[in-house]
Design brief:
It is built from 7 helices and 23 strands. By secondary structure, the protein is α+β, with helices and mostly antiparallel strands. The protein binds 2-acetamido-2-deoxy-beta-D-glucopyranose (3 copies). Residues 139, 409, 411-412 line the site of one 2-acetamido-2-deoxy-beta-D-glucopyranose (NAG).
Length: 460
């Protein structure tokens, strides 16, 4: 009897516990959604935390003051008044070779990042925009580039355009250009100390009919490894000086450090292809993504198994959105892409896009840039996307690579590398999803000076 009573009392108590636990759960869920909601509007100096084991210091919002030169406004006050918005004038300053604040965009020789002075306070720190030297002490020449990680040797290879030559205009209407030097390759174990591995695909000096004749255009080289053929395959944008050829070129090598053998060029699927990238999925299937139809849309399609050609499958995405400079990555089964607008060498606003499948549908989420100041965010920190590198061992954490083009002297263009974090708050809810978040937010955080966290180094 006693025992039964105790039993009943116990049962009653359990029921209470269950009810109160449920109430607690509901409350916690409610609180969680409230906190997330707050995050969503936190553009103003708040910290966005991702749900991944994270690197909180990289997620801090860092403001940046950006003074306009005073003398300029004195020069012609009426012209100053007529100027539409403050940010257009800053872009003009940026594009003006003789701007008094040019050093803010293109810091001079005195502030170089020099890995040979390895033990100082600045060791392993990225300084977006500064001149960055390789282990020989020369400025790194790898523009519009991408990174290949070779797991077996734990080495990163950075491929990019070598623009080490004079900038000129082929004719009045032509955009600024540098003759093709070739594709540079640099190697690194830490993403900071880069050894020059030389030009792994050289421009052509004499044969005028060669795609890579120096008077043509070679942009945005990207390299992926084919597990079946064991070849390193490079895709790039090849064009004539007037950008009318609009084709992709393909080259191949047995080694990451080349030399790469140039195979051929083609218009993928028969369409114009200008800014482009390739993306190797963890399934082993690789894709090409390129700006087409006068840069008004992107095309996306799988490559053949040997990565040397496209298949017949192609989807048009972001139709009418006029995006270029695509950079792709995958996070927890979702595909993400950063793109820029199309304004030539002038910087513009980045957008993040997401999809459940590479072949779409792709949805545009919004501007991923955080911190700095308004004009920084509206110009992708005065730069243009080129690649996104996953940080091994840190799910949700990436390195965002962009180019700060210097149209007056393209060889003196700079690299803007910043942390990119997936997670945390959602972007503005989509109209048809009834307020439920579909995609994790993609955030690129401005930092004047930053380094990969100790935990990342420890994992290397
Ligand atoms: C290194 O940092 C310390 C502390 O922040 C500072 O006192 C020192 O002057 C710095 N050294 C150099 C070479 O910048
Ligand atoms: C580029 O265009 C200019 C002017 O329209 C023309 O004179 C020139 O021949 C063109 N060059 C090429 C390589 O098509
Ligand atoms: C362009 O920049 C390079 C450094 O990358 C420099 O050596 C060269 O003198 C500059 N050219 C001009 C015309 O300013």
């Amino acid at each position: 009897m006693r025992a039964r009573n105790k039993q009943r009392k116990h049962n009653k108590w359990s029921l209470h516990a269950i009810v109160w636990s449920l109430v607690g759960c509901v409350l916690i869920l409610h609180l969680y959604s409230l906190v997330h909601h707050r995050d969503g509007v936190g553009e103003d100096g708040k910290v966005h935390f991702s749900p991944f084991p994270m690197i909180h210091e990289l997620e801090e919002i860092e403001e940046e003051l950006f003074p306009m030169p005073s003398a300029r406004s004195k020069r012609n006050p009426r012209a100053e008044k007529r100027r539409p918005k403050r940010h257009t004038t800053l872009i003009e300053e940026f594009l003006d070779e003789n701007s008094q604040i040019r050093h803010l965009f293109f810091p001079d020789q005195k502030s170089v990042i020099d890995p040979r002075i390895g033990t100082g306070n600045d060791s392993l720190y990225f300084y977006p925009g500064r001149i960055w030297l390789d282990t020989d002490g020369n400025p790194i020449q790898a523009h519009g580039g991408g990174i290949l990680y070779v797991e077996r040797t734990r080495t990163y290879y950075w491929y990019g355009e070598n623009k080490d030559g004079p900038t000129y205009h082929a004719h009045d209407q032509a955009p600024a250009r540098v003759d093709i030097v070739g594709v540079s390759c640099y190697s690194s174990k830490d993403l900071w100390t880069w050894k020059n591995e030389g030009i792994v695909l050289a421009g052509e000096e004499t044969d005028l009919n060669h795609d890579l004749h120096k008077l043509n255009v070679l942009e945005r080289p990207k390299v992926i490894y084919n597990d079946y053929t064991r070849k390193y395959v490079m895709w790039m944008h090849v064009d004539d000086a007037n950008y009318t050829k609009a084709s992709t070129g393909i080259a191949v090598s047995d080694y990451p450090t080349g030399p790469f053998e140039y195979l051929y060029s083609k218009r993928p699927h028969g369409f114009e292809s200008r800014d482009m990238t390739i993306f190797k999925d963890d399934t082993g299937i690789a894709y090409i993504i390129y700006s087409s139809e006068d840069n008004s849309e992107l095309h996306i399609g799988p490559l053949t198994d040997d990565y040397l050609d496209v298949t017949r499958v192609m989807r048009r995405i972001l139709i009418g959105q006029h995006r270029e400079a695509p950079a792709l990555f995958k996070c927890q089964g979702t595909y993400y892409m950063i793109t820029s607008g199309c304004t030539g060498w002038a910087p513009n606003e980045a957008l993040a896009h997401a999809a459940d499948s590479m072949m779409g549908p792709w949805e545009t989420m919004g501007n991923p840039c955080l911190g700095g100041n308004k004009i920084f965010r509206q110009t992708t920190f005065f730069a243009q996307s080129t690649y996104v590198v996953p940080l091994a061992g840190f799910p949700g954490s990436y390195l965002f690579m962009a180019d700060r083009w210097n149209p007056a002297n393209l060889s003196n263009s700079r690299y803007i590398w910043l942390p990119l974090i997936v997670g945390g708050a959602v972007d503005e809810p989509l109209e048809y999803n009834f307020g439920f978040p579909l995609w994790d937010r993609v955030s690129i955080y401005w930092h004047k000076r930053w380094r990969l966290p100790d935990r990342w180094w420890a994992a290397q």
